[in-house]
Amino acid sequence: MASLSSPTTLTNPRFFISSPQNIFKPKLQTLILTTKFKTCSIICSSSFASVSSSTTEHKLPKKQTLVSVNKREEEEEEEVVLQEIWREVQGCNNWEGLLDPMNNHLRREIIRYGEFAQACYDSFDFDPHSKYCGSCKYHPSDFFSNLDLHVHKGYTITRYLYATSNINLPNFFQKSKLSSIWSQHANWMGYVAVATDEEEVTRLGRRDIVIAWRGTVTYLEWIYDLKDILCSAKFGDDPLIKIELGFHDLYTKKEDSCKFSSFSAREQVLAEVKRLLEYYGTGEEGHEISITVTGHSLGASLALVSAYDIAELNLNHVPENNYKVPITVFSFSGPRVGNLRFKERCEELGIKVLRVFNVHDKVPSVPGILTNEKFQFQKYVEEKTSFPWSYAHVGVELALDHKKSPFLKQTKDLGCAHNLEALLHLVDGYHGKEEENRFCLVTKRDIALVNKSCDFLRSEYHVPPCWRQDENKGMIKNGDGRWVLPDRPRLEPHRPEDVAHHLQQVLGKVDDVDDPKPTTT
Asked: Among the options 135, 262, 297, 331, which is catalytic?
């Protein structure tokens, strides 16, 4: 076994924090969580009307629910900035008082973390005719700029995450039809990023570590690949904590012969979180830290599993300052992940989960259609019968209805109800249960984004369906005037000895890295 006691050299600039308290503990003071903002209201009309340019330039047809611009100024005693209430926005009080009516800071943060998850789709190579199918199209250094996500440029991606595709989820993984490809066994699964820009750290009120997991944008059929069979998570000491077998395999399996997935997705994310917490959590600058995990669809499942894993291993505990870094999950359209005991353990560990979903989406209703958190005797059934198909959602729910948006058409396409961009559109227009018939886009998020990968907008907006694609499918003219697909910069996996060093600190043991097996791509 290799000696892994020697520390590895880190090249990133160092920043430190020195706050001894539990940073998820809210301050003992009265906070005014509303700010000065302009609002709109929903009206019904049978006459032709147009939407003000402050909301959108498009026009709506006759006999339709309309968004009108009845603006009013709401004067408040004081304006509250995000850095003052970030703990509440991250769920320290389970979002009490922030969802109904919808707090605008929370709205923007939900959308921002949703965009972190959406970036996994927009950067993923789905083309089966590409030798890079199943990989990320962009280098970490220019990831956000290539996606035109300027608001996210305050973050630096520190690691890409991969999983072996050699597990039984055939409708999830993407594989090239070509023989010479970037990897025979791996698929890109997401990334870990950290807020490094000091202005962004100040705006957020803390240094934020983000883990974003990729879901699947092209199929819903992956749901049918799931066996709905629970297995013991085995991340802690309680064998009664169980998660769905397919999620468990995706998170924990690895392929020794592949350099991208010689460590499992679990090992990759644990090692990187350990490295970043060591890096930023041991010194003098006073920045507090948060861990935010996000994902859509199957990615939401991985987000919850990895958040539980980090908390169960006590990885978010910073011994130098003796406090725990808060863990928040922003889950979008996710299925159920584990049993009732899994749900209870997540709550015991203080993991805060906000589940955002469309009520017409079928994915959040599975697995556990018969026995779930709504079943009165679920706890008895689990404890007395070891029923293998008992599932429970975790966290606070934000249920949205696409039929409330006047921009969206009625459709039977299940993919539209499951679409992440459409869900973020609904977040932007939602104002609370008491105003469920009112729909106004507060951040004025471009409605064209809804049709990025589906056909959901009403036809009068003249936005083509599934419009987002690479120019010329990535083909360029070379010096000879011929069209070719250029090679991408080669992405090297992280050095195994670096991963193994931090993994040993977390799990106590790793495979021998002094005598590694031969690896391929």
From this structure: 297
